Amino acid sequence: MSSSAGGRENRRSSLVGSLRHGTGVSGVFCGVALAIVLAPAAARAEPPTQPDADTYSVHARSATYLQLYQRALLPGPGGAIVATTTPAPATEYVSLRADDIDAPWKKDSLDFELSAWGDALMGEAGQTDRRIDGDLQTANVRYRAGPGWVRLGRQVYAGGAARFSRFDGLSGGGKLSMGLGGELYGGLSVLPRWDARPGYYQLGSASDTLLRDPRALPEPSRSGYWLAGGRIFYDKGPVIAGLSMHEQHDGGELARRNLGADLRLTPFDKASLGGTALLDLDSAGLADGRVWIDSTPLEHVTLGGEFLHTEPALFLSRQSVLSVFSTDKFDELGSTASWQLDKLVGLEGGGYIELYSDGSKGARGKIAIKLTPDRDGNTLLRLGYTRVRAVDNGYHSVRNSLRQRIARTLAATAEAYLYVYDQAIRGYNVSSVYAGTLEWDPRSDLGLLWGASFADSPYARADVQTLLRLVYNFNREAP
Amino acid sequence: MTASRLRTLLLVVALGVSALVACSGRKPHFSHEYHLTRLACGGPGQPRCLNCTSCHKVDKTNQMLPKVTACRTCHKPAEQTKLAAVHPVPNDDLKFAESLHFSHDQHLAMPALSGQCVPCHAGVVPPSDNPQASVFPPMKRCFKCHEHQQQWDQAKCSACHERKAMSQVMPQSFLRHNQGWMRHHGTMARQKRQVCSQCHSQQQCNDCHDVTQNLKIEDRQPEAIKRHFVHRGNWLSVHPIEAKSQPRRCLSCHTEKSCDGCHVRHGVSANAVRGANPHPRGWVGGDPGNPDFHGKAARRDILTCAGCHDQGPATNCIRCHKVGGSGGNPHPHGWKSARSDNASMCRYCHGG
Which pTM does this prediction carry? Predict the structure, then answer.
């Protein structure tokens, strides 16, 4: 490893060089903060490494989408379409990830992530459409030192009391050798397009306020939207247990104050079980509780079971008037199973029943067979059936999918969906969707895809859409 | 022919074509077992007995697949066409092998292996108790010799795995992405954050969870037929059923304001200009005994109400349910809150 490290160093791109040696303002700021926070821990826990061993990886991706479709904008009486537009948006997604980059004071300790999208709407546009739009999705740098880490920038925090949170701020944590650890995070909640209203297209209540134009609403002040939280945990051997806390404010007032608990036990290789609980501290109620078990009794068989208890109103923001209107609960019990009969045939299925506080019931189930008759994996056929029964309606659904590699650089997919509704929707008992793609990958880093779909549904007699996608991947890593 | 019959016919044809394509084109498969154990060899007039290195040349790379020309040592040129069709290993395994930092040369020199291939590649002659054993060793075989405890603790997988390929590798034991995975992945993301980050970037969370994007994930990856995207197919028609079937699931990604935001934008909301009232007769009024009265539905599925009516101080529920209003006290039995009476939301009704 060490003998070839020099050669690898010479092959690095200028991008890597700039990341490594000139980490920019955020890197310097991050470095100073981190050095203060983590230097003692790093000094204790850093394992000995070979002095010249080096690793890094850089991945960049660009995906360009061109779409063309027609949509109904304003259904008239009885759902009749009275106006349509034919937009042709072009959307660009870019992302960059660089891992194990050297900080000036420590090798392989920095990870960077950046991703954003933007689009330009060509063709016809609706009244509320933006011709040019876009947003930054992630932009952060992570510093690792032994068992500790700190991340600065726009980032995601998921699970536990945090559920799914995006914020601009700082997070950090670490784990001691005895299995105990902790994490903290905090910052300003991410609002769409930096400072737009959460919900973004929300126009207000036209029938109540006669508000028609979203621009008439005051823009939110970002400082009023913030969140913070943390988790302490034990993670050693077959036990992972954690206790988490999350507080979020919207418009300067409390939106969420949750306490979370999570547990996962793996008593032996073939089974694991766990549970989570989410408490709403404002109402001192259990917002969500879940217990589950996963097992693999045979090498190619998996079984799972789960019980979920939820009080949906506790998931509303505490700033919602409707959050005080209900304490009704909802329970769900079910299981899933999969069986890979051999390399060619796999079965999967599952079923759940739902019990609501008012005594009504619901159910859902699905079963699917997956065939890969070609040992090279060139062909994949999946046939699936789903049944959903909710309180006032339900549906049967069949979904058949095929993926076929036609040539070394050419592949195609075809899908057909059929829905049969228990109660007619706008006079329709049945609807169907057909979709297909054709992919051409002339090089390992370049791919072109053309896709199209046709749908006949309660909301469109003939919905036809098409899309063209060009993807470019740049990968470089060492060793 | 009616439209529904045409749909059914199209579906049947699609199914038939799919099955036909799927069941055709099987290619012959190379048998390690036959070549290593059942081939008559070593005797007079017989070919020499084969071992692993007869075909696989050991070097420093992570894979040593022989070319078809190696087969010609024994097989006649007339069989060449058939040989060219033989695929020795499934492509998925090959891709995986190529993504490992691994040296056969180094490993075979280790005393524990004594130059033997079978201790790791047990699947070349599948044991009777596991006829589906893969030619490629499972990861747990690596851990028989390597502890990697330090890397494991720090969730540093790139010592062995190429990071660019890891997102294509599904865990087979630890954190197995099986049927129930979609329901548990949030918890796992919290418990094993560092492990997840070895394969997944945070951008991949946003791919599905960032609902402020104009292009949803199902449109961005139409070819990913194996993935369980939520909004596939005719989601537009079934989403009210799904939302009522699993209250709160929508709030995993959406805010309660998202429903009406989209409905207004597409002109299918009572809040939109010329929008139609979706509620039945008797939904509001002076007859709480009416089976269509809104109270019971609101208690059971308040999130659906919030989808349109969550308008802050302009919420129309306040008109009747504020203190002194005709709708009475909306707080159900057992409801409580730790907020002070001065909280602005409380003052919408209690502020006089």
Answer: 0.79
